[in-house]
Amino acid sequence: xxxxxxxxxxxxxxxxxxxxxxxxxxxxxxxxxxxxxxxxxxxxxxxxxxxxxxxxxxxxxxxxxxxxxxxxxxxxxxxxxxxxxxxxxxxxxxxxxxxxxxxxxxxxxxxxxxxxxxxxxxxxxxxxxxxxxxxxxxxxxxxxxxxxxxxxxxxxxxxxxxxxxxxxxxxxxxxxxxxxxxxxxxxxxxxxxxxxxxxxxxxxxxxxxxxxxxxxxxxxxxxxxxxxxxxxxxxxxxxxxxxxxxxxxxxxxxxxxxxxxxxxxxxxxxxxxxxxxxxxxxxxxxxxxxxxxxxxxxxxxxxxxxxxxxxxxxxxxxxxxxxxxxxxxxxxxxxxxxx
Length: 339
Hints:
4-stranded mixed sheet, 3 domains, 22% helix, alpha+beta, single chain
């Protein structure tokens, strides 16, 4: 028996095995087929499957000299002042802007000094040339004074006051952008106490950001370094917890440490030079060089942040700085061995 083909918007009644039906509405050809247990219309041509669920929205791209407010993970920011692309990234413990391209590795260790040079000076007209001793260096190669000297060396005519201002502006920006100095704290909130204050950290350092906090179910963070328990009624028990704080220098007497100068001297120098070159209307103004220096500074900050993050990636180990907060400012009686 020959098969028949029907064209229409509904299948034909009482089809025989092998009959075909062209669905004029759906534009699909079907064959009446028996698989041994039942008969049904089956599509005679391959067709796409059902559309899957919509994927997550893509990130936004912002172009400007300042990062956008309230970014979400995946957003991109092209810093037009330095020609650098950043992506807002969440590493599981905090979110931050990270450079979107491969960065150069950290500078290697300083090589051994070369042999001392030998100079000559004349002993007078017609006199013999006598060797002079190799010069010695009695000042440190890294540190604040060296930073000021390097800025003025690269920018002759710059006043010391201006060099100091730009140096500390660069240092402050470095600590804020990289959260390089982080402190873990054990805190305790006694019964009847609703607020903890961690700021100022000491006479030279201020708290400017909470990186992590544990111990309260309803905390309210109040800048720059306070947290309030919003639980009501106020618990009549002692509450304990942990917090990770980011610190910034409060004044020019803040001790920065040998590790800072050894690892990040060139970064803060580039930051200061970039600020100076980008100042408009100055004899030393050079926007192109300023962007180069700012790019070097941004890369150094990204490396410093990664370095700081690598120091706090393991949970369940004793913290190095066992301070305790009792719900009042540090100078009001924080406990711990560093009181």
